[in-house]
Backbone:
C-alpha cells in the first residue's frame, strides 16, 4: 500500500510502444498514423470529491487515506498530473448504429497513465470529462454530473454483481457549468460539470483496430495488435497469424461471457457501437444504459435508438456477434485466412450457447441441468414474462421462495402464487390467461425441482448468489442525481454501499430492492435517456 498517487509504479506502455500524434495541437482534426495524441486535462474551477470507491483504491494498491488528500482531488479532477504520467487521448473509430462513423476517439476522455501494482496487475487511469482533445469533434470534452453519477455507480455496481466491467475510482464535481440540451428539444441549460476517474487494464476498443484498417494503415494495425497481445494477452505467445486468430477467439469468448452476464442481471447497455466494445470483454462506456424493470426483451432505454431499438435487451447477444464481425474484418490483413477467422468468430456463438442456458438454469435454481427438460422450461418462462408487467429482478429473486420440498404436493393457486405477487406491477392485469399460464408453468417448475430432489434451502441459497436483490434501478440512480445536483451526495454514497452486496438482504434497506414506483414510469432519466451527457 502506498500513501500517495506519486508513489505508484507508472509504466506507460501504451504511449511508449505505439506511435503518437506528431502534432502537438489540441484542436479537433483527423489524426493519421498514430494511436494517440498527448493532451493535458483542463483545469477546473472548484473541484469537489463527491464519492470514491474504496475497493478500486485498494485494487490500485493505494492506502484508503489517499482519498482524503488534496493531491488525490487535484489529480482525479484534472487539475494536476504526476510527472510519471503521460496524459493522452486515444484515436479510434467505430460503427455507430450499424454504420461506419470514421474517426471518433477519446473526445472527452484523457488517460493519465498506466500503473503496475505489486501483484503485477496493470491498470490505466482515465479521466472522463476532463476537457477537449483532438477527438472532440464539435463537442466540448466535458461531462455533466447526472451522466457521471450514472457511470460511477454503475461501474462499481456491475463489478460487485460479478459482471466484467471497467471500474470507477472517483466522482468529482468540477465547479464549472456545462451547457447541455438534455432532451434534444432546442432548450439547452447549464448543468454542473463532473469528472469520473475510470480504471481498466486498457481502454483499447474494437474501433481502435477498425480505424487503422479503414485507413489501410497496416503498420499501425500490426503495431497495435502486437502491443495488445504482448501486454494484455502474453499467455498467447509471440504474435503470428495463428496467434492473432487465437487472440480474436479469446476476445470472442470474453465478449460472450460478458453478454451472458448482462442478460443474467437485466442490464441493457444502450449504445453497443463498436467504439464502445472493450477488447478485454469489459462493459465500457456507461451512457444511456438501463436495467430491465418489467421483463421486456424489446426494451432499450436509449431515446436515440427508440425507432429501431437496435440495442434492445433481447438483441444484445446478436449485436455482440455483429460487432465481433467488424473486428474480424479489421484484423483480417494480419491473418489473411477467412476460414480461420470464421472459426474464431464461431467461438462466440458456441460459447454463448453453452453459457447462456447454464446461467438460466442457475437462475431457476436447477442443480443438475438437463437441457432436454430445461430448455422448454426456460423458453416458456421467457415467453410468458413479457405478457404482463413483471419485474425481472423481483421475479427471479422471489422464485427462490416458491416452496417445493417443504410443502404439500400440490398447493392451491393462491398459495403457489403468493411469493411472486410482489413482482407484478399491476395485479389487476395479472389475471385471466396470463395468470393461468403462470400457474401452469409454476406447477411444471415445482415438478422439475421435486424430481431433482434438491432441498428448498439449498436451492434458495444457490439462487440468491445468481439472482441479485439490489440492482441500480433507473429511478434510484435518478434520485441520487437529484440530490447530488442539489449539493448532497449522501444517496450516491448510500447506493454505492447497498450495491456492494447486491445478493445479500440488507435489513433497513428493503426500499432499494422494491420494484419501480409508479411515479418513475414516465419520468425522464427513470425510463428513457438521451445520449446527452
Ligand atoms: P459515446 O456515445 O459516449 O460512446 O461517444 C461517442 C463519441 O463521441 C466518442 O468519441 C466520444 O469521445 C465523443 N463524445 C461524446 N461526448 C462528448 C463530449 N461532450 N465532448 C467531446 N466528445 C464527446
Ligand atoms: Mg464511447
Residues:
Amino acid at each position: 500500500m502506498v500513501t500517495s498517487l506519486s508513489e505508484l509504479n507508472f509504466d506507460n506502455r501504451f504511449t511508449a510502444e505505439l506511435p503518437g500524434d506528431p502534432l502537438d495541437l489540441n484542436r479537433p482534426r483527423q489524426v493519421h498514423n498514430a494511436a494517440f495524441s498527448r493532451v493535458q486535462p483542463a483545469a477546473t474551477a472548484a473541484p469537489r470529491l463527491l464519492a470514491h470507491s474504496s475497493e478500486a483504491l485498494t485494487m490500485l494498491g493505494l492506502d484508503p487515506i489517499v482519498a482524503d488528500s488534496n493531491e488525490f482531488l487535484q489529480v482525479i479532477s484534472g487539475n494536476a498530473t504526476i510527472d510519471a504520467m503521460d496524459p493522452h487521448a486515444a484515436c479510434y473509430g467505430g460503427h455507430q448504429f450499424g454504420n461506419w462513423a470514421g474517426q471518433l476517439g477519446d473526445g472527452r476522455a484523457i488517460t493519465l497513465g498506466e500503473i503496475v501494482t505489486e501483484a503485477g496487475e496493470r491498470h490505466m487511469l482515465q479521466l472522463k470529462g476532463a476537457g477537449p482533445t483532438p477527438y472532440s469533434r464539435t463537442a466540448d470534452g466535458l461531462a455533466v454530473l447526472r451522466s457521471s453519477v450514472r457511470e460511477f455507480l454503475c461501474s462499481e455496481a456491475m463489478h460487485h454483481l460479478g459482471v466484467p466491467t471497467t471500474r470507477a475510482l472517483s466522482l468529482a464535481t468540477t465547479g464549472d457549468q456545462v451547457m447541455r440540451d438534455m432532451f434534444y428539444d432546442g432548450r439547452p441549460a447549464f448543468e454542473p460539470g463532473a469528472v469520473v476517474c475510470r480504471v481498466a487494464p486498457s481502454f483499447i476498443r474494437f474501433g481502435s483496430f477498425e480505424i487503422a484498417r479503414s485507413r489501410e494503415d497496416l503498420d499501425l494495425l500490426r503495431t497495435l495488435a502486437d502491443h495488445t497481445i504482448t501486454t494484455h494477452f502474453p499467455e498467447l505467445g509471440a504474435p503470428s497469424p495463428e496467434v492473432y486468430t487465437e487472440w480474436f477467439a479469446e476476445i470472442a469468448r470474453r465478449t460472450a461471457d460478458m453478454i451472458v452476464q448482462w442478460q443474467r442481471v437485466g442490464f441493457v447497455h444502450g449504445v453497443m457501437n463498436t467504439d464502445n466494445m472493450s477488447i478485454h470483454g469489459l462493459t465500457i462506456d456507461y451512457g444511456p444504459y438501463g436495467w430491465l424493470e418489467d421483463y421486456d426483451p424489446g426494451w432499450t432505454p436509449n431515446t436515440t435508438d427508440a425507432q429501431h431499438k437496435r440495442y434492445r435487451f433481447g438483441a444484445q447477444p446478436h449485436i455482440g456477434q455483429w460487432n465481433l464481425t467488424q473486428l474480424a474484418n479489421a484484423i483480417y490483413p494480419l491473418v489473411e485466412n477467412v476460414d480461420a477467422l470464421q472459426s474464431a468468430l464461431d467461438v462466440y456463438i458456441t460459447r454463448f450457447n453453452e453459457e447462456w442456458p447454464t446461467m438460466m438454469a442457475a437462475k431457476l435454481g436447477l442443480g443438475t441441468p438437463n437441457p432436454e427438460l430445461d430448455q422448454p422450461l426456460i423458453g416458456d418462462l421467457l415467453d410468458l414474462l413479457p405478457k404482463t408487467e413483471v419485474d425481472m429482478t423481483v421475479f427471479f429473486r422471489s422464485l427462490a421462495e416458491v416452496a417445493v420440498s417443504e410443502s404439500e404436493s400440490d398447493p392451491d393457486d393462491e398459495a403457489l402464487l403468493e411469493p411472486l405477487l410482489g413482482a407484478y406491477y399491476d395485479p389487476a392485469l395479472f389475471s385471466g390467461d396470463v395468470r393461468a399460464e403462470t400457474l401452469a408453468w409454476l406447477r411444471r417448475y415445482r415438478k422439475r425441482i421435486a424430481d431433482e430432489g434438491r432441498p428448498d434451502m439449498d436451492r434458495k441459497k444457490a439462487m440468491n448468489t445468481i439472482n441479485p436483490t439490489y440492482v441500480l434501478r433507473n429511478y434510484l440512480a435518478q434520485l441520487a442525481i437529484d440530490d447530488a445536483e442539489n449539493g448532497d451526495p449522501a444517496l450516491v454514497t448510500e447506493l454505492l454501499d447497498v450495491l456492494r452486496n447486491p445478493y445479500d438482504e440488507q435489513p433497513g434497506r428493503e426500499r432499494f430492492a422494491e420494484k419501480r414506483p409508479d411515479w418513475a414510469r414516465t419520468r425522464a432519466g427513470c425510463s428513457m435517456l438521451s445520449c446527452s451527457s
In short: Residues 5-204 form one domain. The longest helix spans residues 338-363.
